[in-house]
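Per your request, structure below.
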């Protein structure tokens, strides 16, 4: 329940339903197509690209966090804390947040790897970072025009592969 200053009574806002609707909407639209459309409509800077990638890539983590919150709310210690009359902020800080952080920290390396691959794809297509900003995707795009310069293709691919695999290895270490 949220209390708005201009209203005298509590108003029920269906946050769970709104979040599920936003997740379903973003999941229904192909991410690359959505990013290309927004990037073509507005000027892309480093900050706006990170914000755009973040706004379109939170759905998987959102589903995971929602599932974890619903699981924790069903546990007996959470129900006992609620029955004891603990304030909502206390329940969230000491019971929900510690349980939510584990799935987020587990999926974070793969999310970062997906961001890097998506930024490389956008730069390869010429829609990503500005032309003066170096990028693996821009180097890969240049390799199309200089076919005798094999290093313009091989080294960015190897760096991208090494980064993605090392972030995946972080995920495996984090699961232990």
């Amino acid at each position: 329940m949220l209390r708005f200053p201009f209203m005298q009574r509590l108003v029920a806002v269906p946050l769970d339903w709104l979040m599920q609707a936003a997740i379903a909407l973003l999941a229904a639209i192909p991410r690359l197509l959505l990013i290309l459309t927004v990037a073509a409509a507005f000027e892309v800077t480093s900050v706006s690209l990170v914000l755009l990638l973040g706004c379109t890539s939170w759905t998987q983590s959102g589903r995971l966090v929602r599932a974890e919150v619903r699981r924790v709310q069903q546990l007996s210690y959470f129900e006992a804390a609620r029955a004891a009359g603990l304030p909502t902020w206390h329940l969230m800080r000491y019971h929900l947040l510690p349980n939510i952080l584990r799935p987020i920290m587990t999926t974070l390396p793969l999310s970062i790897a997906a961001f890097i691959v998506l930024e490389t794809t956008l730069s390869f297509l010429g829609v990503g970072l500005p032309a003066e900003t170096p990028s693996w995707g821009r180097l890969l795009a240049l390799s199309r025009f200089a076919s005798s310069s094999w290093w313009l293709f091989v080294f960015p691919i190897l760096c991208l592969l090494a980064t993605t695999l090392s972030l995946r290895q972080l995920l495996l270490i984090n699961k232990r």
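The mean pLDDT is 84.

Regards,
D.
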